[in-house]
Specification:
Layout: E1 3-5, H1 9-18, E2 20-23, E3 27-33, E4 48-52, H2 62-80, E5 89-95, H3 98-101, H4 104-116
Parallel strand pairs: 1-4, 4-5
Antiparallel strand pairs: 2-3, 3-5
Helix pairs in contact: 2-4
Length: 118
């Protein structure tokens, strides 16, 4: 299953307020079942919508924040290749500072532990 982008300030704010929290060692996730409310999306299409949020509090360097975002998104992309049947969900990933220096396998194990609870 290929992940789709979750974008838009209103969608991200809604996920921050109403999303269910999950905390791992390398990232925390706010998630909701169902597709985002967007008239351009097909509600019958099964997809996983992934957005990322990394504030300046995480790290002053934008290069490092972007690397943390990319590593977390890539962990989901690789893990979702092996999962065929998943419900339509929205995810807002917030990387933790540990995701910059840890092994990529730690990120993968965090993603797999999150997906196992769905």
């Amino acid at each position: 299953m290929k992940p789709s982008r979750l974008s838009g300030r209103k969608v991200n704010d809604y996920l921050r307020r109403k999303g269910k929290p999950w905390k791992g060692t390398t990232m925390s996730i706010k998630w909701l079942k169902g597709a985002p409310k967007n008239p351009n999306l097909d509600p019958a299409k099964m997809a996983i919508y992934i957005g990322t949020a990394a504030s300046i509090k995480l790290d002053k360097s934008a290069v490092r924040r972007n690397r943390m975002r990319r590593r977390c998104r890539e962990g989901f992309r690789r893990t979702l290749k092996s999962h065929k049947k998943l419900p339509t969900i929205q995810l807002l990933l917030t990387p933790r500072s540990a995701s910059l220096d840890c092994d990529f396998d730690d990120i993968i194990s965090d993603v797999e532990s999150f997906l196992s609870q769905l």
